[in-house]
Design brief:
With 489 residues, the protein is mainly alpha-helical. The protein has a single domain, classed as Growth Hormone, Chain: A. The chain is 72% helix and 0% strand. It is built from 20 helices and no strands. The chain is globular and about 75 Å long. It is found in: Membrane.
């Protein structure tokens, strides 16, 4: 046994009593609903709030721009775009390493520590005096925020099975849309502080957005459990039932939920890891450019004041969140992913075509709603698709971490495709995003057809030879390589 595996075996409190459930036992639907409801009440509101704080801190710079950040700091040329993009350098560097250590570091404490770190950096960003200071703060912000998103995706997979995780991920990921609405409202209100105590409104935007994250980080370790086994709000019987729910799925064994080098290497050598990562990059070209530049886009397509622009972002983000929650529920019920993702990417493409057409304020504003509907549903469902097909923890940790690393790498070029020199039409930005979404859809279709073919082979018994000579336990340990496992597509 490797040192890595030994360390992970030591991080298994109170597991032995649950280690060998009766595999023939089943949890009835009513009991399952009650268990999921209990988890939802404890976990979902906390992670939603945490991600709300995270995303608001990250994109606050877009709102600060409207209130004079560039002029006050003397930024010229593409310096604002550089400041936006450098966050993703450190962000991408530390996502995979963070995913590989989160379980050993105790997830609740680890996530809380990250929140305190990025909250402090976001708060002190309000005091920067020049371009260099702004870049330094953005690099630090990326460092502390890197582990949050992939960490929460991985954290949810420790509690929910693959038939219930899409909706819970949607609750959390829809906050990206909600944060746009809340951020727009908060920035609208903060705009009236312009000039108070000698500070321009953009400094107040950064300061007021950062402080709640610090408080959130202090509270998280006392509210979130580190695992099912250590959850004090669950009875021993409820823990056992949750264990049965998870471990009656193919590949969900005790050993399979520990970090093993062999599982990491399987992720490294699996071409679908890179397929999902490619899609993540293409999807986030849209996500980061849209979330950062939506206020600027709205400002340029109509005759509104800056506070009015902030208010107009609210219904766009809100509709995006509602659409995602509805489709995630449908995805959990049907077990389908691609049939939701691909059409919603096309909806976003229609939105960009409307913006490109420059057919008037009404058409362009309608286009923003189409993009809002597509951006969160397609991107969020893609994240749950990958984790649903990786039952073993090590493969899931690396694959989802790498997917998000590449997805967030899109944050580096995204600001530059909406360069100041291309305003107000932003033809380069809209066209590039359409091309990225077309490439993403082609890869999603390829992945769906590949998983469909694998399932058909297994239905026909063409991979049953892999089980020859193996015990029942060894077959369960095979994870997604087991002929009994069926991929979601």
């Amino acid at each position: 046994m490797s040192d890595l595996e030994k360390k992970n075996d030591s991080d298994r409190p109170d597991v032995e009593a649950l280690e060998r459930p009766d595999v023939s036992e089943r949890v009835d639907k009513m009991t399952e609903r009650k268990l999921l409801s209990k988890l939802d009440k404890r976990i979902v509101p906390v992670i939603m709030w945490m991600y709300l704080m995270n995303f608001m801190d990250r994109v606050a710079i877009g709102n600060a721009r409207l209130y004079g950040l560039e002029a006050d700091l003397g930024l010229d040329g593409e310096q604002f775009q550089i400041a936006v993009s450098v966050l993703f350098i450190t962000y991408c560097m530390f996502e995979v390493p963070s995913n590989l250590i989160i379980k050993r570091m105790q997830p609740a404490r680890y996530l809380g520590g990250l929140a305190i770190g990025w909250g402090l950096v976001a708060t002190f960003s309000a005091f920067v005096q020049n371009f260099a200071g702004l870049v330094a703060c953005r690099l630090l912000l990326g460092f502390f925020e890197a582990g949050m998103f992939p960490g929460i995706i991985l954290y949810l997979s420790m509690f929910y099975n693959r038939n219930s995780i899409a909706l819970r991920s949607a609750y959390f990921f829809s906050v990206a849309a909600i944060s746009g609405a809340v951020g727009g409202f908060v920035s609208y209100a903060i705009g009236f502080l312009d000039g108070r105590h000698g500070w321009l409104a953009w400094r107040w935007v950064l300061l007021i957005n950062g402080i709640p994250s610090i408080v959130t980080g202090l509270v998280i370790p006392f509210v979130l459990p580190n695992s099912v086994e250590t959850s004090k709000f669950l009875s021993d019987e409820e823990k056992r039932q949750l264990y049965v729910l998870r471990h009656t799925e193919v590949g969900q064994t005790v050993s399979g939920q520990q970090l093993h080098k062999a599982d990491i290497m399987k992720a490294v050598t699996d071409w679908t890891t890179y397929g999902y990562a490619f899609c993540g990059f293409c999807q986030n070209i849209m996500l980061y450019s849209f979330s950062t530049f939506l206020p600027t886009i709205i400002l340029d397509i109509g005759s509104w004041t800056r506070p009015e622009v902030q208010a107009l972002t609210i219904p766009i983000y809100s509709l995006g969140a509602i659409a995602f929650l509805i489709m995630a529920r449908i995805g959990d019920i049907t077990g389908k992913r691609a049939i939701i993702i691909i059409p919603f990417n096309f909806i976003a493409i229609i939105g960009y075509v409307l913006l490109l057409s420059n057919a008037g304020t009404g058409a362009s504003f309608t286009g923003c709603f189409f993009i809002g509907i597509g951006v969160y549903t397609a991107g969020g469902m893609a994240l749950t698709w990958l984790t649903s097909n990786c039952p073993r923890y090590g493969k899931r940790a690396f694959s989802s971490g790498f997917q998000l690393t590449m997805a967030n790498a899109a944050g580096v070029p995204a600001p530059f495709i909406f360069a100041n020199s291309t305003a107000p039409r932003f033809i380069q930005g809209y066209s590039t995003t359409i091309a990225a979404l077309c490439c993403s859809n082609l890869m999603f279709l390829t992945l769906a057809l590949y998983w469909r073919r694998r399932n058909k082979r297994r239905d026909a018994g063409l991979e049953d030879y892999k089980m020859e000579g193996k015990t029942e336990e060894e077959i369960m340990e095979m994870g997604d390589e087991s002929p009994r496992f069926r991929y979601m597509y």
